[in-house]
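Data availability excerpt. The first of two example chains:
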Amino acid sequence: MTPMGLPAHAEALGDLYSVSVPYTGDNEAAFRQAMRDVLVRVTGRGDVPEMENLAPLVAQASRYVKSFRRAPGNMLAVTFDGAAIEDAVDASGIAFWDNERPVTLVWLALDRGGGRRALVSSNDTSAEKTRIDSDATRRGLPLVWPDSGDDLVRAMQQAWSGNHDALRDAARRYGADGVLVGRAREVATGGYTVEWSFASPGADGIATGDLEAGPALAAERYAGVYASRGAAQRTEQIVTVTGINSLDAYATTMRTLAKLAPVRGVAVDEVTPDGVSFRINVRGDPGALDQAIRREGRLQAVDAGRLIYALSP
């Protein structure tokens, strides 16, 4: 599928290929779980790690590990070779979801029985919110929650009523691209059965399941819109930056360009009295480079059509 362009309120993830997973002393098992999480993150699909053409990445996960370290809370932080994973996903024919991710507003109404109902807010420290936040992080899904400035009692009533128009209208106020509404009923085993509904331009959906079924629904719907099989495309573009008048300015520009999400390589092409031209290897849509430069903010457009920018003082 061809992506519709960047979501209006996209948030750039730091590194798609670095994850933390529970650690029980077995490195190989932790590496396999970390690879599963990365494959879900870069495709938006929960079934991908079990697919025949990608299952070998999971089975041989240790071959792709670049670094790992113990982390607090009995976790293992693992970083993989992103280029190798990108190539494998591209070869599989599965659409790839880049690191510019939509922001999702979550309205979660809990029914704990006995007339005890509550709406989860941004300052909530409940286990339910923690579980959803954790799963969303694993999937690379930025979330926002309602704050105390909202009428949370009314919002809870709207969530339970099934008429979610007002909750969806709040997306713009929270800087969100999509709205996830959950109606959770506690079951005898202590968990929840949740009726989830999701709304975003071109990506509506519903699901019933546990608390983690909400982030899964949103991620899969977003991926259907924003993931692209064209993400494997590589182009070489020349970017000219003016205002480089010292070694520090040159180093700053190189770091700025190199860390942009679609960039896979930066080299100097030409140095002139007015600036420096860089030859940049770009992965995915060629237009994503200009969008990434504008979003980062350090380089100001002089002539975006010709990829000419000025380094901010």
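And the second chain:
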Amino acid sequence: MGGSLLDRVTRLPFVVPGDPAGVPASVLLALAPVEGADDLELVLVLRPGHLRQHAGQVGLPGGAVEPGDADGVAAALREAQEEVGLDPAAVRVLGSLDRAYLPVSDFDVLPVVGVWDGLAPLVPSPDEVAGILRPTLRQLADPANHGTMGFGAILGEEQLAARAIPGDLTSPVFWVDGTLVWGFTAGLLVGFLDSLGLQAPPLPAYWGLRP
């Protein structure tokens, strides 16, 4: 696939989102150019341990669409501003990717892709974000930084049993500065990297099944 990484992103087959199958939600893939390299930095958030859902996990800025949001794009921009202080006016939205269903929460997630300059400082909201990770797409695509793991190894056998997850299921994973990215977010990143012609771990056969 030719062209710079930014060119490839702008040429992605963005879609007009259809009706959600579950609770409408959005996430923002906020991309920033890396000075002196054909690469793009991505904003990920580490969730604090006290949350009811996804505690301690790494995700993309985002959440449920609220009544005051004009649409899923507006929701993604609002959530990114609330969670990490990213000014919506600084983001050039390129479009949306296909919805992805998250069975554990019944969210039907609209991934919104936007570009910003990456210069303004990001500040985590302490209620929602324990830390901010900013890997580049080429770092994520490096085989040294990704692979697959069984849910038992990720969660531990006790959590596996508590969540009634079959022991033979696996997840794509990424390692970002020693932090493990797995589950829904890792699956979404696999599809995104694949669409750009970058290396990514394989998705299990059950991945992305809709209700």
